[in-house]
TrEMBL record:
Pfam families: GSDH (PF07995). Residues 79-94 have a biased composition (Pro residues). Keywords: Lipoprotein. Residues 126-457 form the Glucose/Sorbosone dehydrogenase domain. It comes from Myxococcus stipitatus (strain DSM 14675 / JCM 12634 / Mx s8). PANTHER family: ALDOSE SUGAR DEHYDROGENASE YLII (PTHR19328:SF75), HEDGEHOG-INTERACTING PROTEIN (PTHR19328). Residues 17-96 are annotated as: Disordered. This is Putative lipoprotein.
Amino acid sequence: MRILSMPLIVATLLVGCRDDSDPTPPDSGTSQQDSGVPGDDAGVPGTDAGLPGDDAGVPGTDAGVPGTDAGVDAGTPEDPLPSGPPVPQGPPNVPEFDPAFPGQTRVPAIQTKTPLDVVEIASGFRNPWAIAFLPDQRMLVTEKATGSLYIVTQQGAKSPKVSGLPAVDARGQGGLLDVEVGPDYATSQLIYWTYSEPRSGGNGLAVARARLVDGALPRVENVQVIFRMMPTLESTLHSGGRMVFTPDGKLFVTLGERSILEGRVQAQDVKSHFGKVVRINPDGTVPQDNPYLSNPEAKPEIWSIGHRNVLSAALDSQNRLWTVEMGPKGGDEVNLTQAGKDYGWPTIGYGEEYSGARIHQSPQAPGMEQPVYYWDPVIAPSGMTIYTGTLFPEWRNNMFIGGLAAQTLVRLMVRNDRVVGEEHLLKNLNARIREVVQGPDGALYLLTDATNGKLLRVTPR
Ligand SMILES: [Ca+2]
């Protein structure tokens, strides 16, 4: 693989050291792992007092182009499965926890054969978080910390800030997070975004939509908040925030458990939105086939429970929802995220507190779902896409996940809902990868998490 025309970002990289991601809250101490990038996740755990654990950053995902073909489990049956050693990485943080099945972590390393070209489309974004494509291939790009939204052309021309967005609570992992273009954009011009909403008594993730008025001075009008994560809590961490539209017109939104103990203990409590994936209609109403509707105490938007901080989400060719969540030290997870299931946090998991303290008695328990894959040490995931394009035939149906602390683009080869190969791409950029989306042209588009964040395009050379 060769990288052309890409100025390298000089940064200190500690691979395999702590990678977690927590965004370093403003009050925290020095972050050793994070290359100087304020953003989020990196973290140094343990610096923030009062946190139970660690923190992980905010992963995200965007699912880019939903809908196309093959599921992640598709694949050519006659292809031999990869074999050999895993991607080089540090020793596990929690060696006493054994995987539930072979291939749940540290699968054989694989290598992309197609030479890559990485082009910088634009730079100067302050901790950008998400990309969404307009029908004409221009991109909406969010900046987490400033709460700003821009429209960027394929040639890199950046619009003035889109005006009319509500204020955000930008502390820690908060701010303006994901953005999506509505499925009926051609007629409605509706765009959707997630952000940390300042509230009396704290904050909480919110989903808003509005009509984008394009032009030399772009703005949004008729802003409507369609979902609010409840309860309101004073925390700058673990808000989740990725959105995925499904072809049947529903919207998944990933949420976190706020990291502090008061929130963490609500991750499996259906009376709270914390630590959940939710599913709503685009106007914020509740789909009548959601899984907890028969429980009058449950929040009706809930799709799945027991998550820590889900920062990545994408649909496969069967329109099933895959998510990646930021775990504690040694516990980032890939989950096939199904209706009404409990993904175990904080009862089970493969990691430990950043202090080294034990969180879980066991990584497995009856009635709780096992991750399809986990990382120990962690990558600090954010951003995800399942590749369906034609530019890279060898990547078809592979998962791509941004690595913040790991400063890499992770590629997972999946067969029959199991991960069978892993690659860490673009290590030579020395950049925290916040977002990965497949463009309409089949290229991958990335954002790097830095105070001078870059928008990159990856194509075959
Ligand atoms: Ca789990």
